[in-house]
Amino acid sequence: MAARALLRVIKKRAVSCPAFRGHYTFRHGSTLVVAEHEGGVIKPPSLSALAAATCLPDPDSSVSVLLAGSGPSLHQAASHAASSYPSISKVLVADSDKFKNPLAEPWAKLVHLVQHSGGYSHIFAAANSFGKNIMPRVAALLDVSPITDVTGISDSNTFIRPIYAGNALCTVRYTGASPCILTIRSTSFPALQKSVDSNEASISQVDLSTLDEDLGRSTYISQSSQDDERPDLGNARVVVTGGRALKSAENFKLIEALAEKLGAAVGATRAAVDAGYVPNDLQVGQTGKIVAPELYMAFGVSGAIQHLAGMRDSKVIVAVNNDADAPIFQVADYGLVGDLFEVIPELLEKLPEKK
């Protein structure tokens, strides 16, 4: 009952970059964004971290982006970043096979090295698997306390982050030593868009001659991913999610068929994943992926607080459930009390084919 009461009174909140209205303890400095890249461009979650870095109120602060890896893709990403985003003042490139894969040990040593040479006041990264893997180790090496899953920036040392599975927002004031390490919830900061501004940032190579060769005991083995033409769940404009009420992996194909017609990504609750209906990379929620699509459709999803934590920032939420008292209806913009096994086939019949 307490959780339901909280959900009634806590409304969805759009966090922006408010004007600076107070004093802060940091010196004028610069900000480092640890970015992930693929295919010669910076990934959207890292662009959201970059957007968050521009929200810092210090007008004299500059923003540097750290890119690491090896091969032509790395240098293509560096060139693209330098020419496409005017808010970037410098692109740092670490070219080595050690950073070909996002292992925490070498990346953390790299950020530690760059911080000692650059003296940054803030270090940003996305709160995705990349940032969550690397930044806690960076914070340990620098002997500072990180602030994770930030959804809002009030000033240079005051930040907003969710607690209690997203049912409340906590304001945190950082009083530790520099740098202030932050991981950013990408759904709260729209990814920075490319600009036609001709001001190009400088590109510098990181001197790796002093990097410790003892980079830890973990070894990269392999990476597997499903060959899927559907949009990526974390960045999709439309997400169709199924819950335990689908009852089987065979029935879950109804969700996949609807997603195919809508050009949407497929999501699932933890209960559906635990039951083996779909793989766990489709899980949405506190222990899965955080999404904020323009349209979120939930079929047979009860609305446990752990699931709501992963999708409550969606622009429009549509819920279909045969239980009129399901908590999902408390956050839904549109709700239909009905049998999903009747609703989905009707939608499939009436929706036009995807062009």
Structural overview:
- With 355 residues, the chain is an alpha/beta fold.
- It has two domains: 30-205, Rossmann fold, CATH 3.40.50.620; 238-350, Rossmann fold.
- The chain has helices spanning 2-9, 44-53, 72-84, 104-118, 129-142, 253-262, 270-274, 305-308, 340-350; strands spanning 30-34, 37-38, 41-42, 62-69, 90-95, 122-126, 147-150, 152-155, 158-163, 168-173, 180-184, 202-205, 238-242, 265-268, 295-299, 316-321, 334-337.
- A seven-stranded parallel beta sheet has the order 7-11-6-1-4-5-12, sandwiched between helices. Strands 14-13-15-16-17 form a five-stranded parallel beta sheet.
- Helix 4 (104-118) packs across helix 5 and helix 6 (253-262) packs parallel to helix 9 (340-350).
- The longest helix has 15 residues, at 104-118.
- Residues 1-28 have low confidence and may be disordered.
- Residues 31-215 form the Electron transfer flavoprotein alpha/beta-subunit N-terminal domain.
- Its cofactor is FAD.
- Its main location: mitochondrion.
- Heterodimer of an alpha and a beta subunit.
SSE topology string: HEEEHEHEHEHEEEEEEEHEHEHEEH
Please identify, by name, the CATH architecture of the largest domain: 3-Layer(aba) Sandwich
Helix content: 25-40%
The separation of the N and C termini measures 45 Å
Number of strands: 17
Neighbour order of strands in the largest sheet: 7-11-6-1-4-5-12
Descriptive labels:
mitochondrion, alpha/beta, Rossmann fold, elongated, electron transfer activity, single chain, ETF_a/b_N, 7-stranded parallel sheet, 355 residues, 25% helix, 23% strand, 17 strands, 5-stranded parallel sheet, transit peptide
